[in-house]
Design a protein that fits this description.
InterPro entries: ADH-like_C, ADH-like_N, ADH_Zn_CS, CAD-like, ER, GroES-like_sf, NAD(P)-bd_dom_sf. The protein is an alpha/beta fold. The chain is 24% helix and 25% strand. The chain has two domains: 213 residues, Quinone Oxidoreductase, Chain A, domain 1, CATH 3.90.180; 136 residues, NAD(P)-binding Rossmann-like Domain (Rossmann fold), CATH 3.40.50.720. The chain binds NADP nicotinamide-adenine-dinucleotide phosphate and zinc ion (2 copies).
Length: 371
């Protein structure tokens, strides 16, 4: 069933926080019989890649291969995958299938782990990220800015036939990170939802809030430069430009049931965002700034009984439901394809806020065949 491949892969490796990535070899985890291998065709660039590469959340575990919005073709399957106890869906993975891998590559999957047993692998205390992380055997996890990926079949997902690979890539992290809290906090008919920060995650937040049938979706951005895209393109009903509109917190107060905040900088007007919530409303932080969030006065919480919470990527179930909804409702991210060779330039453009709204790195098929 499984053909063997060399134990060195090639990819775009970071050795420190400042040098450009270099195309070189690295050693993936040892292959186990519950793993698969994938020839990577596409990988999105997520804000997390930037935080990690510059050690923004703390020192990264270099050498590091980032990228966790991976799409590729299965080239090798471990002998235990067809009977995998932990994931009936992963048993269906075959050589030649198109699969996606997101920001998580493993969790403990133990029966006595309440999170794993409950299908909340994304909150397992022994979670393994797709990069900058270690498996239980202490081997390093390497991500998708590479020619190949190797890892547990439990965290690989078959991609519905109707989703093109380049558009499917950002769904694996960006898509599920906004879909999971929208689902959990009841976004749908009768609900007004605000999406703060219109970047990779945020534009997907507007698309998924629409696809879930929310009554009203409001794009909240710093300036009006993304207004046209948000309203005419992504389907938002309204738009707030927080750096330009006067007294926007008061003007739009008590108008939203749920806010998903994708902002990745600490200097956000948090207490003003909370003013937008109705009584009992929920604010979900998914963006992960490198410095603490702004201070709040107790009255921001007390006056309307609002809830402030956060959300980490999504569970395997969230990912499957999200892919199904994306296929049914044609939720397609707005992407710009970049050759994988241009990864350093693409990272610089992403960091400068130029993506509209997600860069997807594409591996050349010919090069792929040789490696
Ligand atoms: N929770 C999770 O599981 C999870 C998963 C994936 C990513 N993330 C995190 O989510 C964040 C966003 O990722 P992304 O890929 O969407 O990045 P992105 O494409 O760069 O989008 C971030 C957006 O934040 C807004 N923003 C930036 N600086 C701001 C400021 N000072 N004040 C207010 N808004 C500001 C911008 O929107 P406007 O131009 O519209 O203002 C920008 O487009 C990152 O921190 C990433 O690490 C978290
Ligand atoms: Zn991500
Ligand atoms: Zn667990």
């Amino acid at each position: 069933m499984s053909s063997t491949t060399p134990d060195t892969f090639k990819g775009w490796v970071a050795n420190n926080a400042t040098s450009p990535l270099t195309f070189t070899t690295f050693h993936p985890k040892p292959f186990t019989e519950t793993d698969i291998e994938v020839a990577i065709s596409h990988c999105g660039i997520c804000g997390t890649d930037i935080h990690t590469l510059r050690s923004g959340w703390g020192p990264a575990d270099y050498p590091c291969v980032v990228g966790h919005e991976i799409i590729g073709t299965v080239t090798r399957i471990g002998s235990e995958v067809p009977t995998l106890a932990s994931s009936p869906a992963s048993r269906e993975i075959r050589i030649g299938d198109r699969v996606g891998i997101g920001a998580q590559s493993m969790s403990c999957l133990k029966a006595d782990c309440s999170e794993c047993a409950d299908g909340q692998e994304n909150y397992c205390p022994r979670l393994t990220g797709t990069y900058n992380s270690r498996y239980a055997d202490k081997s390093k996890a390497y991500g998708g800015f590479a020619m190949r990926w190797r890892g547990p079949a439990h965290f690989a997902f078959k991609i519905p036939g109707s989703l093109p690979s380049a558009e499917a890539a950002p769904l694996l992290c960006g898509g599920v990170t906004v879909f999971a809290p929208l689902r959990k906090y009841g976004a749908g008919p009768g609900k007004s939802v605000g999406i703060v920060g219109i970047g990779g995650l945020g534009h997907l937040g507007i698309l998924f809030a629409r696809a879930l049938g929310c009554d009203r979706v409001v794009g909240i951005s710093r300036t009006s430069s993304k207004r046209k895209d948000a309203i005419e393109g992504l389907g938002a009903d309204a738009f707030i430009a927080t750096d330009e509109e006067k007294k926007w917190g008061r003007m739009h107060s008590r108008s939203l049931d749920l806010i998903i905040c994708t902002v990745d900088a600490p200097d956000m007007p948090l207490s003003q965002y909370l003013r937008l919530l109705k009584v009992d409303g929920t604010f979900v932080q998914v963006g992960a700034p490198e410095k603490p969030l702004p201070q709040l006065t107790a009255f921001s919480l007390i006056q309307k009984g609002v809830k402030v919470t956060g959300s980490n990527i999504g569970s395997p179930e969230d990912i499957r439901l999200m892919l199904q909804l994306a296929a049914e409702k044609r939720v397609l991210p707005w992407i710009q394809k970049r050759p994988m060779e241009d990864v350093n330039a693409a990272l610089a453009d992403m960091d400068a806020g130029k993506a509209r709204y997600r860069y997807v790195l594409v591996n050349e098929t010919e090069k792929q065949a040789k490696l």
